[in-house]
Every structure is written in structure tokens, then in C-alpha cells.
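Can anyone check this?
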Amino acid sequence: MVRRQRAADRAVRPKLRSPGHPKFQREVETGFWVEIVKGLLPIEAAAAVGVSQPVGQRWFHDGGGMPPFDLKAQPSGRYLSFAEREEIALLRAQCQGVREIARAVGRDPGTISRELRRNAATRGGKVEYRASVAQWKADLAARRPKTAKLVADPRLHAYVQERLSGQVRRPDGTTVSGPVPPRFTGNHKSHRRDRVWVRAWSPEQIANRIRVDFPEDESMRISHEAIYQALYIQGRGALRRELVWCLRTGRALRAPRERSRRKTWAHVTPETLISERPAEVEDRAVPGHWEGDLLIGLERSAIGTVVERTTRFTMLVHLPREEGYRHKETPRNGPALGGYGAITMKNALATTMSTLPAQLARSLTWDRGKEMSAHAQFKVATGIPVFFADPQSPWQRGTNENTNGLLRQYFPKGTDLSRWSAEDLEAVAHALNTRPRKTLGWKTPAEAFNEHLLLLQQAGVASTG
């Protein structure tokens, strides 16, 4: 009887593959996608639910960037839950019988008996019941993937694919090949590279136009969401993955809506807004208020520029690349080695500005770049408060913007700025500071700055005398 029952179990359930480690529980994966919907990155969501970064990246990639199941769906209670399987495993380890376990769990004895036979772990050479393995086997057996509509209907598939990736034609019908695109890598469209010339209808255009072209044929209907899922979700087998490059954005993965609402400038706190800057900064009567930004060059090279608002005195910050930097070979999510990461920038800028007397280092106004995200540590190290200009408001740092324009004569766009040494930058800054300026009454910035230094020294002598 037992032998017949086991044979019957094998008849209704095919042999399950063994991918190795049992998958994480649905509750964990659901928690991961809840964090993604909130706008977190995969690495952040993985850390929030306690799984490794590769697992989170794989979930995000396999799901096309969107949850593969309904996050609001609640278990119906028809099937055994993981908590019940844990209780079954505990009672089984205590040598409890099937009926005793059934009474404790509140299930039919037949349910418990089938569970112990079907979902037991067998890889150790003997039959043992473990909750994690049992849940994993049950999830594999419960999968009922539906065939995608684009797979089942070749005519609908051909219509969609032609309007996504069909060739561009002249008015007389002849095709235009266009440029040769780069090889598809599975990532976003190549930056500053040719893209293939195709018809490139959007999924929404396809889904609505098909109703116009086939008004009487109800089989020729598809939603734009189904087209997006056919492109992005692996395993659907409906459309080739490389067709994502035919979309306008060329994204390899979908971006959750909340991701676009993430606070871009999380390092800009309310007390560092430019509206909180002292009022004395505006009229330039009091020296010691500075403006700063970066000059960006090729291959992630940069030079820091700091300009005093009253005297236009300029200091250049040397930002050499760090050891281990390789252009386009930097490890993904690895350390910032370009030379202007937050900590590197903080240290270099603090070294440059710590040479100033406190009366000539009252504040610093910066663009909203992430290179100054360590501004709190910079203030602790130097005592100089940092304020950030409003988004897309370069006129709030007009002195620095004008100086950067002058510096482009020495450091043109599209050149590698990492080749210049600290001594070279000092020479350029000296050339700028010894150039007469109309706004200073044809004095040079160095002369105007030295006048303020002399006034400070005289005030110090008078106070001590």
C-alpha cells in the first residue's frame, strides 16, 4: 500500500530540478519589491530585507525592474504556509505521528501525510522533512506560467515586432539601412554611439493603433503593458530582449515610478540652502565669502575652483585620480577613484582653504554636485559653513561661473585635466590673480586680496597693543 501511494505521488508530480540552495521565502522577496516600489535601488532594497546584493540584483533583473507578482495579494489559507511547515518540521523532529501533527496544525491528516512524502528532503541519502526545502518544492510545483499572448498568436507577434523594429523606408518604399549599431550588451543604449534606425513605435502607439487597423478582429488586441512585459521580463519568450533598444529611452530595465521621485540632492539639508546664507554675502562688502564648483574634463578628470566674491581671488584645487583608477574599468558600485569623490573632495578642499585666516573664510557657496556631500565633515575640519545654490540657478554663483569661463582658456572642454600637476594649477591661478579687473577698478585680485590681509594684520596689531 505504501509503495503504491509513493508511486501515485510520483505520477502526479514530475521530478523536480535541483538548483541548489532553496529560494528565499515569498515574504522576503515581497519585502524586497516593496522597498523597490518606495524608490530604493536594488542594493539598498536587498540590504533592507537582509539578502545579498547579487540576489537583489538578480530579482530586479529577472523581473524587468517591476514586481513579478501582486504585492497586495494575501494568502488564501488553502495551502500550507511556511509557518505551518516549520511547525510540522518541529513536531516531526519530536517523533509525533501524522494525526497528532494534523491536530496541532489544524489540517487534515491526509494533507500532512502527503506533505511529508512529497516535499521531504532526499539529497542527504535519507528522507528528512525540513521546512525550507518543503516550501521550495511546493513553490516549484505550484508554478502555472501562462503562455504569453504574443507567443500564442504569430500574427499579433509579427504586427508588434514590425512596428517596434521594422525598417525605416523612404516614401517610395525603399528601405534605408541607417548606421551600423553597436553589439547589444544587455545594458542601456550605448552613450554617444549610433542607434539602429527602426520604426520605433511606442507600445502605447502600437496598442491603440491596432484597434484602428483591426476594428472587427478581437484577437488582434494587446495592451501596452503586455508589450513592455514581453520586452523586459525574462522567460516570457515573446520578444527578443535586444528590442528594448528600439524604445525611445533604450532602457535595459524599467525604472519604478517612485525612483524618479527620489530626492536627487539628499545631501542638501534645510540649513545649507542658499536662503540661509548670511545677508552680508549679497552686497560683497564683507570679504571672506567664497563660491566653488568643478571644471570637468575627459575620463572623469576634474579641477576644483574656489573664488572669493569681493576680490575675485581664485584658488584651484588639485584633484588627481586615486590609485587603481582605470577608465571604463572601474568596478561597478566600487569606490569613487576619479579624484572628486565626496571624501577625496572634502580632504583636498579642506587642505586648500585651511591656509586662509578665519576672517577671510566665512562661508562657501557650492553647486549641488554630489562631490560636496561630505560638507558636514568639511565644516568640522575647517569651520567654514557650506551653502548650496538652488537647482538650475547658476547666477547665484555668478562670480564662480565667470571665473570658470576664464579658466576654460587654459583648460578647454574635452581635454584630460588630470595631466596637470598642483604646481601647474598654481601657475594658472597666479596668472588669473595678477590680471587687472574692471570690477576692481583695474586692480588685480591679488592686490585686492592682499589689502584685506594687511587690514586684518593691522587690526590684530592694534588689538594686542
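Reply from J.R.: I decoded it. Residues 211 and 271 are 55 Å apart (CA to CA).
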